[in-house]
Amino acid sequence: MSVYGYIFLDPERKFLQPLEVQQRAIEEYALRHGLGLGELFVEQGISPRRYFAERAQAQQLLGKCQGGDAILAARVDVLFCRANDGLRLIARLARLDCSLHVAELDGDIVRLGARQLVVSRGIAEQVLTLLTALSRREREGQGELIRRAKRSRREAGMYLGGPVPFGWRVGEAGGLERDVAQQRIIGEIIKLRQDRWSYRDIARMLLERHGVRFSHEGVRRLLGQQEERERRCERRRKPLQVEAVRPGLETHVELRPVPHPMPKG
Fold this sequence. Notes:
CATH topology of the largest domain: Rossmann fold
Mean pLDDT: 77
Strand content: 5-15%
CATH superfamily of the largest domain: Resolvase, N-terminal catalytic domain
Distance between the termini: 127 Å
Strand order of the largest sheet: 2-1-3-4-5
Low-confidence stretches: 114-121, 239-255
Shape: rod-shaped
Oligomer: single chain
Order of helices and strands: EHEHEHEEEEHEEHHH
Helix content: 40-55%
CATH architecture of the largest domain: 3-Layer(aba) Sandwich
């Protein structure tokens, strides 16, 4: 059985503990639990937001781990950048039959343990449950932020990607602007539809007059999408409504003639 220590040094030196503090915590934990500490892996110059398996020293460490080996770290935040990173690392070490000890939690967060001849579930199950809940919350939060951002951009008339709709183009500010030539064609389609032409006849006339190919379903969808975009533009342009003055609250102004001095005889 080999026991490895893992230390992470924050390149900005703002959040994580210095090397001496982490090393002392690992050595004291190993001594307290009777673990013979071997090689120390010191990670530095890498963003703490990078996943554990993507870090250079962590990759070497995982490459050396075999069944029954143990990894020691001072704190949880030197190991995981987010909850799903922790779940991945715990699952990987469990497949390797390795343990992961965290000094600040005073236990192995991967495997169930036996303490003082009394079978104990330790902290592994609680940590796994906590990380699973946090991971789910992170995904929900990220999804909600993405939906809000898209909704806000859509309401502002911004282009969200995908095919640019017929009659519009992407402006310099990133929003959809009317394409004058294509809008004329759309106006012609609207006029033909008002004159009771069928969608198939309109599609045929578009091809003959403008060389624009639409199916009859495409013409129908185009008209529906155009109406929806016009409504959105109208909502953005809608002026503020001035609230009417309630009866009895009108302001009356009494006008009186201003006296002028009479010229002297």
